[in-house]
Amino acid sequence: MDSGVIEGGLNVTLTIRLLMHGKEVGSIIGKKGESVKKMREESGARINISEGNCPERIITLAGPTTAIFKAFSMIIEKLEEDISSSMTNSTATSKPPVTLRIVVPASQCGSLIGKGGCKIKEIRESTGAQVQVAGDMLPNSTERAITIAGTPQSIIECVKQICVVMLESPPKGVTIPYRPKPSGSPVIFAGGQAYAVQGQHAIPQPDLTKLHQLAMQQSPFPIAPSNQGFTGIDASAQTSSHEMTIPNDLIGCIIGRQGAKINEIRQMSGAQIKIANPVDGSTDRQVTITGSPASISLAEYLINASVESSKPPPSSSSLNPEQTSLCSPSTLYYYYYHHHLLCCYLLLLFLLLLFLLCGAPLSLHPTVLVGSRAASLLLLLFLLLY
Predict the structure, then answer these.
(1) Tens digits of residue pLDDT in 20-58
(2) E-assigned strand segments in the chain
(3) Which of 143, 245, 313, 315 is buried most deeply by CB count within 10 Å?
(4) How high is the pLDDT of residue 144?
(5) In whole angstroms, what is the distance from residue 321 CA to residue 7 CA?
């Protein structure tokens, strides 16, 4: 949320980002864009909507404070109209509240929650709206979603109070905005190449092609080259199943947060993947992969890659004896001790030679000088022989 301060008001300019599902956005845009055009004209706010081929989309409201909240009120009213329309043929007795999500930098969420949750509790009680701050940041961003539910007026008042908190506590550091990703497209393999199907078009996927080729090199299944057209990944080959076992402590890296990783592997490979429930007394989980040989090979490759990337690095005990002997404390101490001793010998030799060559100018008795030189020669001879 960006802003500039004015006298006695909230701000000159304000930016609010709403995160909505595609169906909700379609209702706000309206037929041929008439609905959103009307909102822009009547509110005077700038309303931008992110790309349309995503399950989630960002609606950005920017402009003077009065214009922003006029546009925001019109969006809330539109959402309430949709809820009322859906209730016409519904058997439900109670009308669900209007619910929306706004996106804010994660660095500002602490100020919004307050010490011990006091600030967010105050906002809930004063506005009557339900407010929930997401615990995790949105994917590939430093932003978090705030879900607000209630009556249109309570939501508007709640967002105003949230804006005040955001303005009093500016974001810290660099903010990476959340950008929804396009929904996953089916993947097919033909002529050794991978393609993502989008509508009636097949878009080449070079990275996925390389990944598929790596999987084929390690595949236990014989796969004959096919020159058939775009028949789909499973249409040109007989469906089969393959089972593999994964240690219980590594199964999480395959499933991922809320199943995100396993869904990604399913989508990329085109295979069906089922993970069996844990069995008492067993340290492994059974994973069943069903699909064409190409699908199974790619799924298995991606699963193994996930497992290997999650394994801890090898400890020093797994090194060979030669490596461990070179790094052991006793070996290091031996080398250090002898290096130190050699330095002492060299220093002593230097001092003895200096005394033998330059001892005459010293004010010593002739007898003492002769004896000292003789002792020095004997010591020097001993050190050289040693």
Answers:
(1) 988 888 889 988 889 999 999 999 999 999 877 778 899
(2) 14-21, 46-49, 56-63, 98-105, 130-133, 143-150, 187-190, 193-198, 201-204, 240-247, 272-275, 284-291
(3) 143
(4) 92
(5) 76
Q: What type of residue is 244?
A: M
Q: Is 50 exceeded by the pLDDT of residue 259?
A: yes
CA–CA dist 262, 299 (Å, integer)? 10
Cα separation of 370 and 363, whole Å?
13
**Cα 121–chain centre separation:** 30
Q: At residue 344, what is the residue type?
A: C
Instruction: Please state, as a whole number, how many other Cβ atoms lie within 10 Å of the Cβ of residue 170.
Output: 13
Distance between CA atoms of residues 177 and 281, nearest Å: 46
Taking the model in full, what pTM does it have?
Answer: 0.49
Q: Give the span between the Cα atoms of 268 and 123, in whole angstroms.
A: 44
Six-digit token pair at 359?
């001892």
Find how far residue 209's CA is from the centre of its chain. 24
Task: Note whether 192 and 182 are within 8 A (CB).
Answer: no
- pLDDT tens, position by position, 76-102: 999 998 888 887 776 767 788 899 999
State the number of CA atoms in the 13 A half-sphere of 207 facing the CB.
Answer: 1
Beta carbons within 10 angstroms of residue 373's beta carbon: 16
Report the amino acid identity of residue 305.
A
**Measured distance CA(267)–CA(263) in Å, rounded:** 6
Contact between 155 and 190 (Cβ < 8 Å): no
Give the residue among 139, 66, 79, 157 at the shortest CA–CA distance from 103. 139
Residue of 292 and 134 predicted with greater confidence: 134
- Phi–psi pair at 383, nearest 5 degrees: -65, -40
Beta-bridge partner residues of 289: 242, 273
